[in-house]
Amino acid sequence: MKSELTYVPDVLDISSRLSLRIFTIKEVRRSFWIHNTGPVGCLPYVNDRLLITTGQVDEYGCADPFNQVAKYFNSKLKITVHQLRQELPEAAITYVDVYRLKYTLITKANKFGFVQPLKACCGHGGKYNYNMHVGCGGTVVRVDGKEVVMGSCKDPSG
Predict the structure, then answer these.
(1) CA trace torsion 137, 50, 156, 74 (10° rounding)
(2) What is the pLDDT of residues 31-80, one digit of tens each?
(3) C-alpha span between 33 and 111 (Å, rounded)
(4) For FRET with 122, which of 17, 51, 93, 153 sits at 20 to 30 Å CA-CA?
(5) HEC string for the chain
(6) For residues 99 and 97, what is the distance between their CA atoms, to the nearest angstrom?
(7) Residue 115 pLDDT > 60, yes or no?
(8) Are 151 and 136 spatial neighbours (Cβ–Cβ below 8 Å)?
(9) What is the pLDDT of residues 127-154, one digit of tens each?
(10) How far apart are alpha carbons 7 and 13 in whole angstroms?
(11) Are strands 92-96 and 31-35 parallel, antiparallel or unpaired?
């Protein structure tokens, strides 16, 4: 996991420098909405396409190594946002914890009316209703000789 974490400081440094540059442009508003990354290890394409062992899956079905990288990134992002607030005291900087919101939707899915929170709403086939060759977006494709329309699902809770 160490190699996945080495890019985080560079990404945050670039983001911070860009925010500072944007702030200096007089025509630009002084409000920033910064949100962290969600639980990547819960995404259908991650769980379907990447090699994940049973021991790497948490109790909710998410790939923990990917979520650990997301949490690490988010912890460093929060520090970066704090530093930006100090460097730009006139700016209104809102930090949104998307990770917690999305992970709560997954871990308490039944409470919010979801039956299969890890399953893609649009897609086709497999455990996660994900197929890299059959994407979403209203496309008509042939799968096993049948015509399949790949739009949004009728009931996203299902």
Answers:
(1) -100
(2) 888 899 999 999 998 998 888 999 999 999 999 999 999 999 999 999 99
(3) 28
(4) 51
(5) CHHHHCCHHHHHHHHHHHHHHHHHCCCCCCEEEEECCCCHHHCHHHHHHCCCCHHHECCCCCEHHHHHHHHHHHHHHHHHHHHHHHHCCCCEEEEECHHHHHHHHHHCHHHHCCCCCCCCCCCCCCCCCCECCECCCCEEEEECCEEEEECCCCCCCC
(6) 5
(7) yes
(8) yes
(9) 887 777 766 665 666 667 776 666 666 6
(10) 10
(11) parallel
Sequence letter at residue 88: L
Tokens of 72: 């690490």
Res 32: pLDDT: 82
Longest dimension (CA), the chain: 61
- The answer to whether 120 and 129 are in contact (CB under 8 A) is yes
Looking at this protein, which amino acid is placed at residue 25?
Answer: I
66, 67, 45: which is closest to 122 by C-alpha? 45
